[in-house]
Amino acid sequence: MRIGVLGPLLAADATGPIDLKGPRHRAVLARLLVARGRVVPVDMLVADLWEDPPDGAVGAIQTFVAALRKALEPDRPPRTPATLLVTEGPGYALKLAPDAVDAWRFEAALNGSLSALDEALALWRGPAYAEFTDQAWARAEITRLDELRLLAVERRAEALLGLGRAAEAVPDLQAHVDGQPLRESAWRLLALASTPLAARAMRWSRCAAPGACWRTSSASIPVPRCGNWNPTSWHTPHGSFRLPRPLYWSDGTRR
């Protein structure tokens, strides 16, 4: 069993893709996936699926769950307990293997090698829980996964720098800072990747305080000694880079 949430919701088993039925069925499955194995009470499912729950909402939830159980375990004999989407106490929970969900595999790989990080980032097919970005119940998990993805991009860059492969890190880091212009760790890594001494600078620039890391790292970056040098941009063999426009004037007022 494989379930994907790093993009549109999908599921597959050994025989191929699984039909997850209609939007409400998919929402129930996604809501249970967000809970990561914890029980979601029926009344919470009702509140999450409908702003104004209709009469018979509880019965509808039961119908959705029954259809999902049949889709996820098509060979389960009649009247035998479900093993994947189970009833517990006041609600339902998913009991899946640790590697069954792409988001779980992605998170487990964050402390891995360069190849593990490459494989983890390749799991992303689009925005996390792409069909449910406007749902309040999905928002915190989407934000958490998005932050972990940014972290994975930076850890991959660190791995490349440590291996002396700085030039390979620059294009992805440039795209990274373009998308996250206020993320200091991204600028630090781009600056390190852009110096000829990237691997050496990477080894001794690690420290606990981000501001100190930036000051330490930037000290290792060679800069031109000329009167008209612009400190908001610099040029390297890998391309030209420009810092984002400051949001505030020197007196503290917003631009």
In short:
With 255 residues, the protein is mainly alpha-helical. It folds into 2 domains: 2-94, Arc Repressor Mutant, subunit A (Orthogonal Bundle); 112-202, Tetratricopeptide repeat domain (Serine Threonine Protein Phosphatase 5, Tetratricopeptide repeat, Alpha Horseshoe), CATH 1.25.40.
What's the structural blueprint in terms of helices and strands?
Blueprint: E1 2-4, E2 10-13, E3 16-17, H1 23-34, E4 40-41, H2 42-49, H3 57-72, E5 85-88, E6 91-94, H4 102-108, H5 114-122, H6 136-162, H7 166-179, H8 184-193, H9 198-204, H10 210-219, E7 233-236, E8 239-242
Antiparallel strand pairs: 1-2, 2-3, 4-6, 5-6, 7-8
Helix pairs in contact: 1-3, 5-6, 6-7, 6-8, 7-8, 8-10
Explain how this protein is built.
This protein is elongated. The chain starts with a strand and ends in a 13-residue tail after the last strand. The protein folds into two domains: 2-94, Orthogonal Bundle (Arc Repressor Mutant, subunit A), CATH 1.10.10; 112-202, Alpha Horseshoe (Serine Threonine Protein Phosphatase 5, Tetratricopeptide repeat). A hairpin with a 2-residue loop joins β2 and β3 (16-17). The model is unreliable at 222-229 (pLDDT under 50). Helix content is 47%, strand content 11%. The strands form three sheets. It has a three-stranded antiparallel beta sheet, with no helix packed on it. A three-stranded antiparallel beta sheet has the order 4-6-5. α6 packs parallel to α8. It is mostly helical. It is built from ten helices and eight strands.
